[in-house]
Write a structure and sequence with these properties.
11 strands; mainly beta; 1 helix; elongated; disordered N terminus; single chain; 11-stranded antiparallel β-sheet
Length: 165
Amino acid sequence: MTLFRTALFVTCLLISSIPAAYADGTSVAFGGIKADTTLPVEVTADSLTVNQADGNAVFSGNVLVTQGEMRMTAAEITVEYQEGGKGIKTLHATGKVLLVSAADAVEAENAVYTIASGQVLLTGSVLLTQGQATISGQEMLVDLKSGTGKMLGRVTTTFVPGKKG
C-alpha cells in the first residue's frame, strides 16, 4: 500500500507541474504549425472590398487563407499591402479565427499574421489543440518559420495521460 501511495504522490506531482510550465509563458512546440512563409498566399471569400485610398482589401464571409499546408479561416480578413502594393504586409483576421496545419489547430477571436516575420499573434480566448491535448490562454504568438509558440495570459492545459499496455 505504501508503494501505491508513493506512486500516486509522484504522479500527482508530475501532473500538477505541467500547467505551471505553461503559466509563465514558456514556449510550446508546434510541429504541425510550421509553414514556408515564402510560398504564395491565396485568399478566397464571399466578397471583397478594396479601399483605393489606403490600399487595403477586406475579404468577408467564409474567408480562407492558404499558404502551403497552412490554413487560416475567419469571418473577415483585412489585407494590408506593403508600400507600393508590392506584396502583402499583414493579414488582420477577426471572427472565429482558426489556424490549422497538420495535426495542430489554434482557435481565437482575432489574429494578425505578419508575412515577412512569419509570426501570427492570436488574441481573445485562444485554444490550441494538439492531438488530445489542449492549452488555452488569452494571447498566443506563433512563429510559423520555427514551428514554436508562446501562450500568455491565464494559461490552462488539459492532456490525456498515456495508457499502459
